[in-house]
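Let's practice the habit of predicting before peeking. Look at the sequence and jot down your guess about where helices and strands might fall. Then scroll down.
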Amino acid sequence: MSLKSLIKPITLMGANASGKTEVALALAAITNGEIISADSKQVYKHLSAGTAKPAGAWAETAGQSVYLVSGVPYHLVDIIDPRSSYDAAAFVLAARQKIDEIKARGKTPIIAGGTGMYIQALWNGLDPLPAADPALRTELAAKAELDGKEALHSVLKELDPKAAGLIPAGNIQRVIRAIEITKLAGRPVSEIWSGRFFDALPAHLGTFIFFHWKKELLNERIKQRTITRFDEWNEETKNLLELGYPEDAPGLKSLGYPQVLDFRSNRLTRAEAIHSITMLSMSYAKRQNTWFSRYKNARRLDLENFSDYEPEKIAASIMEGAGRGIEE
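Done guessing? Here is the structure:
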C-alpha cells in the first residue's frame, strides 16, 4: 500500500474568529503539511481584511505558483476575481485535486475553514443539481430585500413545504437556492435531495476537529477583530472601487463589505458600521456552530477561557489523537 493511500487529512472547522488558521499553521509545522482553505470568501483576490485571509505572498515553488503563509503552502485562497462567483461544486473539485497532490508529496493535507457546506460537500459529496441562474437569484434576492425574508420563505413553502420545513427563513441563501433548484428542475428540491448531504463525516478517512468557543468569548473575539480591522477593511474597499469593481460584485457581497460600502457612502457612521458587522458576524457564528455541532463523530475542542487557546499545544494534542496523521 502506498504512503499516499495511508495519509489521513486533518479537517479543522468552526465559526469565524475561532482560531483555525493559527492551529492549521502549527499543525503544518509538525507534519510538514500543507493547508487547504475551506472558506467561501478567502478565495477572492484583493479581499483580505474582511475575510480574515491569512497574510501571505505568492511565490514560485517547484515550477508552480503557490500562496505561502509563513513558508507554508496555503491553497484555495486569493485565486478568484471578486467579479466572479464560486460555489461548493468548484471547491470540491479543486480541494480533492489539492488533497491528492499534497498526499503524493508525502505531506498531510490540513483543511481549515468555516464554510460548513464546503466541508460537508467535500467529504459526503453533492447531489446532481441544476447550475445557478444569476438572473433568478437576483430576482429572489430583490424580493427578500423588498418584502422580507419571511415572504421569500413563503414562496418556498408554496413550492415545496417539506424543504421549507427544513430550511429556516433566516437562511436566505439556502432558501434562494432551494427555490432556484425547484424552479429549474421542475420538481420539488426535497425530491432531489438524496439525504447524503446530512450524513455524518467519514471519520475513518480523516481527523475532524470542531473548535467550539464559549459564546461570550467568541463574541468578544469577533468584536475585537472587527474593531481592529475596520480601518484596513475600509481602505481595502476603497482600493477595490478605484480598481473599477462594482459595489454589487459577488466578492463585495461578502459579510461586512456592504456595511463598509454604506459607511463610505455616509449611510452609516463608523460606529454603526462596526456594530452592524459585529452583530452579523455573531449571528453567522451561531449558525456555523449549529451546523458543526451536528457532527457527533468529530472531536469537539471546547475553549472555555482565552488561556485555553494555545495553537502549538492544540496542534500537538490533535496529532496525539490523530495517530500522527497516518492510518495505522
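How did you do? Confidence is low (pLDDT under 50) at residues 323-328.
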